[in-house]
Design a protein that fits this description.
about 900 residues, mainly beta, Immunoglobulin-like, 9-stranded mixed β-sheet
């Protein structure tokens, strides 16, 4: 394996030496006191009970956004008391014009309008914290903070209570937090870290009690301190949440198809639970989970072959996900490899991936998702800084049903599978450094099934990561190393070698070779980076190297787009510390990145600069320019040789109106243009326009149309053997995509909301100028292929194929199908959510979806309008009732 010398030279050249460091402000301290149970305040938002007089108001907040280190427009104060079961917090948000307080409502975790928030680092590990937010309208939000503020998990939903009130001085709030919802050590005297933040919506400001300079690295580690807590004992949490679901489906009836009779219904039950094993460690479990109330993924279609990364939305997998987050590279620049990770929870319960051998006249029914029989998580963090996360899940065997006449048979499409994910890490020096490791295992029951040649029998991955900070955490060194091993039948491992992620069959890759006898495949990967987050000099940078060996395979339990790559990345940024001229804030960034394969071939080089500004009229805007210097793809021909892409330059911009207004707008645009103008080797443009209207505090409406168009001269179509050579067939594709997302939120109260989301989507692709590749690395793109002449190619209307007579003897040498496409989809759901008591919910859900196709030659909008509601959509009606028992 050879890596070019200039690769190392580029890294060394990218390491600037900036030696000015910030000095953190001294931590402030608030002294609380304990009250008797009979003295505890009644939570009504008025702060009038005598018990509040036992402690002083804490005030003197400092603005950190948009201006840094200045006095806020309006002052804020708070008090904290506690008893043996609860922590109580009172807030006073001063406002001389209380009639102008913005009381916008939203669903829980919406963060709309004016709000105030308190963070408790009850572990006092300077890495993790529990966040509780209440808005002036009484809407509650809560998040679990990890990685010293780099991860905020809004799917953490503790049980707590809060009320607000408006008076002549402004608005006040009272909250009561059960100690069972916090984690702390078993000792007589406690010191907790705390931070209080206020959002002043009218002034578009955020201010904090403990001032943390905006350019400082870290959040929890910079908290103030809460003293005076003593005599409380850790309390074990016990929560049981059973639920019952009734659902009915209505869909198009197809005559003769026994699986499409037009309707279906069922009643199901399940159970979620949370048990505090110790004061630090919690067991979460779910039996027969249902996620019918979770919003569907947006429609998407891509031609480049890369997987689409979708965010996890299911509550069980999202909560405490920081303990299972092992991203290989967390880079500020460098491309899509930042999504690669050891554990990608969307693999569990995904659509069955096995194929079925069915005849043309047979009817087939395949489940939409794989059933999750049960799952459990054991997670938490001890007072000594040891974080532990263990997840175990079992997904059921799924079968597809095939019926012809009166005969019915079944074929397995997904095997019974066990999933194990384990992570442990240890903090050192109060979180200034850490060492952690993860291991994942996927084991499938495949013996004797038709899926033995389609799935890995088992797949194991693991890795170690290390983080070290110094100079008040301004300098950060991170490093990790990972491995993978998959095993199965020889056919399954050969399929993996030939898959898009690997392409061992590439004819010009001297370091790759398909071995059809192998029954396992192994690989390694890793990342090392160093960063400085500025501090007082406002100058920051990050640079590093990330690699994936050819045999690395993570896609059983994790996410990996492509192996066989070594990436170098660099980012540098400067933030102007003070407002000036028309700017409330301004920052500018520079990036460059390069990629090699493991044969030492330099595949990609690019550099970028971008700027972002906030204006005194409360608008914001940004723009950027990327210059591609080199682009060679080892994926463009889908297993073929390296293919030179035509490099060019990309530009983008966005503009946002004043977010405080009832009517807001957002617009962004992107365009890519090649350096070579010959017939437009490639041109890409996309636009997104978002409008949002808030007619009242309780109602919000938004519509977001998007348009995407690409004209690509060389797009893979097919490959075939001819005259002892492989012909790689490509063509010019013009793809046009249009979609519109529509959202309506109606908040009848802080605990009763109705939300609707709908998205029509259409993507069309028209191919022309078919050719076969002759010199894929030619400098000029027109020299890379042979364009089929009219005497070489003809269209067979009966079979819907193109026939190629390359040698001109009048006999078809090979053919390929028409690649034109028209994909039309509509997805929507409406959810009524009522939290009828703390932690217990009622959901009423209506989901609608439909997918169809149309003539690829038809006009885009005309085709969408005629087909989006042209067929009977699939409707699902669901009622879900949960009840949360809390001890």
């Amino acid at each position: 394996m050879h890596v070019k010398k200039q690769f190392l030279s580029a890294i060394l050249a990218a390491l600037p030496i900036w030696t000015i460091f910030a000095t953190d402000p001294e931590p402030r301290c608030y002294e609380t006191c304990q009250v008797l149970d009979q003295e505890c305040p009644f939570i009504d938002g008025t702060v009038t009970e005598d018990c509040w007089d036992k402690v002083l108001w804490a005030s003197e907040f400092t603005e950190y956004q948009p201006e840094d280190g200045t006095k806020p427009t309006r002052e804020t104060a708070f008090k904290i008391i506690y008893d043996q079961r609860y922590v109580y917090v009172a807030f006073r948000c001063f406002d001389p014009e209380p009639e102008k307080i913005v009381r916008r409502m939203s669903r829980r975790d919406g963060f709309a309008g004016d709000w105030v928030e308190i963070n408790f680092d009850s572990y006092f590990d300077k890495r993790t914290a529990f966040s509780f937010t209440i808005s002036a309208s009484g809407v509650k939000s809560d998040e679990f903070i990890s990685s010293d503020g780099n991860n905020w998990d809004s799917n953490w939903n503790p049980i707590w209570h809060g009320k607000t009130s408006i008076d002549s001085l402004g608005w006040t709030a009272e909250i009561r937090i059960p100690l069972t919802q916090l984690r702390y050590g078993n000792k007589d005297e406690h010191i907790w870290g705390i931070q209080v933040t206020r959002r002043d919506f009218r002034a578009d400001e955020r201010s904090t009690w403990q001032y943390i300079p905006r350019n400082t690295n870290g959040w929890v580690s910079k908290f103030g301190q809460l003293a005076g807590i003593s005599g409380i004992k850790p309390q074990k949490q016990v929560e049981i949440q059973p639920y019952v679901i009734a659902s009915a489906e209505k869909f198009q009836k197809i005559e003769g198809n026994p699986f499409a009779d037009g309707s279906d219904s069922k009643i199901d039950v399940g159970l979620d639970g949370k048990i505090g094993i110790t004061s630090d460690l919690t067991l979460d479990f779910t039996i027969n989970p249902d996620f019918g109330q979770v919003e569907a993924d947006p429609s998407s279609l891509t031609l480049d072959g890369f997987q689409i990364f979708f965010d996890e939305r299911r509550p069980f997998f999202v909560e405490n996900n920081n303990l299972f987050d092992f991203r290989i590279t967390q880079a500020q620049a460098g491309g899509p490899f930042g999504n690669d990770q050891l554990f990608y929870s969307r693999r569990i319960g995904a659509a069955p991936m096995g194929s079925i051998s069915a005849g043309d006249d047979e009817y087939v029914n395949i489940p939409d998702v794989t059933s999750i029989l049960g799952a459990a998580k054991f997670s938490g963090k001890t007072k000594n800084g040891t974080a532990l996360g263990i997840m175990e899940s079992v997904t059921g065997e799924e079968k597809g049903m095939i019926r012809f006449g009166g005969d019915e048979r079944s074929e397995m499409v997904e095997p019974l599978t066990n999933w194990f994910i384990g992570y442990v890490s240890q903090d050192f020096k109060q979180g200034k450094s850490s060492l952690g490791g993860m291991f994942t295992a996927v084991n499938r029951r495949l013996e004797g099934s038709v899926l033995e040649d389609q799935f890995h029998k088992n797949a194991y991955t693991g890795g170690l990561d290390y983080r070290y900070t110094w100079k008040e955490r301004q300098w950060v060194l991170t490093a990790n190393m990972i491995f993978s091993r998959v095993a199965g039948s020889a056919a399954a491992i050969e399929n993996t070698q030939r898959s898009f992620t690997h392409y061992f069959q590439r004819p010009d890759a001297g370091h790759l070779l398909v071995d059809s006898t192998r029954t396992d495949l192994s690989g390694i990967g890793g990342n090392v980076s160093i960063a400085n987050y500025g501090g007082d000099d406002n100058l920051s940078f990050q640079t590093g190297v990330s690699f994936r060996s050819p045999g690395l395979e993570l896609n059983d339990a994790g996410f990996l787009n492509s192996s066989d790559q070594i990436n170098h990345y660099f980012w540098g940024g400067y933030r102007f510390p003070d407002a000036f001229s028309i700017f409330r804030s301004f920052r500018i960034n520079y990036n460059h990145w390069s990629r090699w394969d493991f044969d030492g071939e330099n595949l990609y080089q690019a550099l970028n600069t971008n700027a972002h500004a906030g204006f005194t009229n409360f608008w914001s805007a940004g723009t950027g320019l990327t210059l591609e210097l080199k682009d060679i793809s080892n994926r463009a021909l889908f297993g073929g040789p390296l293919m030179r892409q035509t490099p060019g330059f990309a530009s983008w911009f966005y503009i946002n109106s004043d977010s405080r207004k009832k009517f807001t707008a957002h617009f962004n645009g992107f365009g890519f243009h090649p350096w070579q103008k010959h017939k437009g080797a490639i041109k890409v443009e996309s636009y997104r326009f978002s409008l949002q209207y808030q007619p009242t505090n309780a109602v919000r409406i938004s519509v977001t149309p998007r348009f995407f168009r690409q004209n690509r001269a060389i797009q893979n179509v097919s490959s075939t053997d001819f005259m002892e050579e492989t012909r790689y067939i490509t063509g010019r594709v013009i793809q046009r995509t249009f979609s519109t997302s529509f959202r309506l939120s109606v908040n009848l109260s802080p605990n009763l909301t109705v939300q609707y989301w709908g998205q029509p989507f259409i993507s069309k692709g028209n191919y022309s100028e078919f050719n076969h590749i002759t010199d894929p690395l030619a400098k000029l793109y027109q020299d890379r292929y042979h364009l089929f002449g009219t005497e070489e190619i003809r269209w067979d209307d009966d079979d819907g194929t193109y026939l190629i007579d390359e040698d001109g003897d009048g006999v078809t040498d090979y053919d390929f199908s028409n690649p034109d496409f028209s994909f039309i989809q509509f997805r929507s759901n409406m959810v009524l959510r009522w939290e009828y008591q703390a932690g217990s919910e009622l959901f009423l859900v209506w989901s609608q979806s439909g997918t169809t196709s149309d003539d690829p030659q038809a006009e885009l909008i005309h085709s969408l309008r005629n087909n989006i509601f042209g067929e009977d959509p699939h409707n699902i009606f669901l009622l879900k009732l949960t009840y949360r028992f809390l001890k």
